[in-house]
Fold:
Amino acid sequence: MNAVPKCTAKYLHKWLERHKSLPSFPSVLTELDAVLASEAVTLEAVVAVLQADVSVVARIMKTVNSARYIMHEPAQTLTDAVSRLGFSATRMVAIAAAFMSLMDTPKSFSLRDFWRSAFVSAVACREVVGMARLNHENLDPSSAFTLGVASDLGVFLLDACCADDYAAIVQKMQSNPLALVKMEQQVLGVDHAIASAILLRSWRFPESWVMGVAGHYFPARLPKAQQPWADALLIAESVGYYLGYGHGVCPSSPTGMSLELTQLRLGSLGLTERDFMHLASRVALMVEQEGWLSLADDVSG
Structure:
């Protein structure tokens, strides 16, 4: 492996500044949130925002015609689709579609496998928050879904700025994400959780979200107030691995990402091992019914 400069957070920030081709946060999501925040929000206003982004519209139409939402006949218009999905589900699909359009095809890992894992983690994080009743101002179920999708996007950044070295890491990776984090730190000087946090900070996400993503493999290292965000993400990602979804870098594992660590953190959210098993069963059903796996398979769309 060729020696490269250590990819510190400062190095990654400078790399992002030099490579302006890396997309900015999708404006359709900012505009959609602004519309949904209005007490007088209307179906027409939501549709008007969404129809400006063709890729988002295409994936909303694909999702609304999945098993969970389809009625007697497929939805034919965006208005019909949003009406059937409801505003909350529409927002989640828009988030997923926008992030999919945002990231370039990686050189060293499977795009399809990554998005499958990301959507499973997002659904799991949404459900974890609901089960744990986390009444934090910035962590409602739809916000948890956003974090679940975004928590591992740093692999794209490392793949882009340290391509040869990251490809070598992927080739050697035969264990779980905790082993991946350790190898990334040893070889590059930074791991993909930190890289994900840097992306989120560049998109001006709340700092509590940024820290939760940065520390989601080791929640106990964070200040107490920031641990619930990291705990929810760790448990959600562990559900994904338990169900057999790798993210293209790490292989899947039927024993979960790291059940010992996850078991320790379940109690922090007032959950039990039985809750974890119930959560895994529920998520396995929901990702199929809600069309998330089909959406991930449509990576060329």
Notes: Residues 111-132 form the longest helix (22 residues). The CA atoms of residues 68 and 289 lie 5 Å apart. The chain has a mean pLDDT of 84.
